[in-house]
Amino acid sequence: MSDNYEELLRLIVEKSKKSEEEINEMIESKKKKFPVKVSQNGLLHIIANELGVDLIERIPDVLKIKNIEDSMRNVECYGNVISVYPIREFATGKVGNILIGDETGMIRVVFWNEKTEILEKIKPGDVIHIKSAYSRMNQDRVELQVSRYTEVLVNPKGVHVKSVEYEKRKISEISVDDNFVEILGPIVQVYDIKIYERCPKCNKKIENQECQEHGKVEPNNLFIFSFVVDDGTANIRCTFFNDLVEKMIENPLQYKENPIEFSEKRRELIAKMIKVKAKVNYNQSFDRIELNARDFTFDISASEEKEFVSRSNEVKESDDSDVDNKKDKKNKLEKLDKSDKSEKDTQKKTTKNNEKDKKEVEKISLESEDEFDEVLEEDEILDDIESLMEE
Ligand SMILES: [Zn+2]
C-alpha cells in the first residue's frame, strides 16, 4: 500500500466519488475533533474507513500481465506489442485495440475515441508502458482499457520487456497452471482441416459465400487443423489456426472441395516428429488440456531426437517403480480429465502399449471430433475460437 498522501487522496476521491474539496473539508473538520495531533495520512485512513473505501485493496504499481485481473484500477504495466488491429468507427465514436505481451502472458488493450490516435504511432515490436489503465472482463477474458486518464508511452528509453518463454515440457507434466510450453514428439493422429467462411463485413459464419445480411460476399476463410502428439509420457491435442495451418499445409483451400485428397497429406504427417510451441488451453467443453499452437518445426536436431528417445525410455522404466511420479501423474491426469474415466485409463496406459493405445486415442479423438463439430455450429464458439487464435 502506498503511503504517498497525494496518491491516497486521489484513490479516495476516485473510489468514494466525492470531490477533492469535499475530502479536504472532511480532513479539516476531523482535525478539529482530535485532541492529539494525527498525521495527514492517518486522517486520510480514518476518512477512507468512514466512506467505506478499502485502501488496502490497492494493486502493486507495476504488474506482470498474467496478474492483471478483472476490475482493477490504476493498472501500470509494460508489454511488447504483438498485433495492432484496425480502428473501427461508430456513429458515437471510435475503438481500436492491440495485443501486448510480456514473459508471463498476453492481454488485449482497448483504446477509445481520441485515444485511438496513439494507435497510429504503434506497430508490432514496439514496447509500451501503460499507466492508470483499468481492467474489465469481456467475453470471459480480461482486457485493459485506455481511458482519458491513461498514459501510454511508446518505446520508453532503456526499457526492454521479455517476451513469452516457452518451457520445455513432457506432455504428462503439462498442467492447467502452465501458460506457454514447448513439446516434442511424433504426430500420432491427424484430423481433417476445417474451413469456415466468415462474412468480411459482419464476421458472422456464412455458407456458399452468402451472408444473410450482406448477400454475396468474398468470404474470409478460417482454417482450423488439429492433431495429436504423443511423446511417450502422454498425448495431447494441438490445434493450429489460419497462418499456421498454411505454414504446415500448402494451399489448405484445395481440401475444401476434395477432403478425400487430404488422406495423402495425413499419411505424410503421421509418425513425423514435430516440435510445437503453444499456449496451454483448458477446454471446458471436454474438461481437458489442449494446446493452441503458436509455432512449430519439423526441423529436429539429432541431439534433440536423442534426448527425446532417452527421456521417453526413462519414463517407461520409472513408470511402475516411482510411486511419487505416478501419483503426480495421476493428479495431473485427473485435472486433465475429471469426468471421463475410460479416457483417463487410456491415457494412463499410454506408455505401456503404444500400438493398442494409438487405436484408442484415435477412437476417443474421433468421438471428440464429432462433438467439436457440434460445438462449432455455435457462432459464439466461433468467436471464441477467433479470440483463441489471437491470444
Ligand atoms: Zn455479413
Inertia-based shape: globular
N-to-C terminal Cα separation, in Å?
A: 32 Å
The total count of helices amounts to 11
Percent helix, as a range, is 25-40%
* Gross CATH architecture of the largest domain: Beta Barrel
CATH superfamily (homologous) name of the largest domain = Nucleic acid-binding proteins
Strand content: 25-35%
Give the low-pLDDT segments. 322-330, 332-383
CATH topology name of the largest domain:
OB fold (Dihydrolipoamide Acetyltransferase, E2P)
Class computed from helices, strands and strand pairing: alpha+beta
What's the CATH class label of the largest domain?
Answer: Mainly Beta
Q: Give average pLDDT, whole number.
A: 79
Strand runs, count: 18
The Cα radius of gyration reads: 26 Å
What's the number of structural domains? Answer: 3
Q: Which ions and ligands are bound to the chains?
A: zinc ion
Main sheet: strands, sense, barrel: 5 strands, mixed, barrel
Order of helices and strands: HHHEEEEEEEEEEEEEEEEHHHEEHHHHH
Strand order of the largest sheet: 2-4-5-7-6
Describe the structure.
The strands form three sheets. Strands 2-4-5-7-6 form a five-stranded mixed beta barrel. Strands 10-15-16-18-17 form a five-stranded mixed beta barrel. Helix 2 (20-33) crosses helix 3 (40-51). The chain contains eleven helices and 18 strands. The two termini are 32 Å apart. Strand 15 and strand 16 form a beta hairpin. The protein is globular, with a radius of gyration of 26 Å. 34% of the residues lie in helices and 30% in strands. By secondary structure, the protein is of the alpha+beta class. Residues 322-330 and 332-383 have low confidence and may be disordered. The chain folds into three domains: 5-51, no CATH class; 62-154, Nucleic acid-binding proteins (OB fold (Dihydrolipoamide Acetyltransferase, E2P)), CATH 2.40.50; 167-390, Beta Barrel (OB fold (Dihydrolipoamide Acetyltransferase, E2P)). Zinc ion is lined by residues 199, 201-202, 204, 211, 213-214.
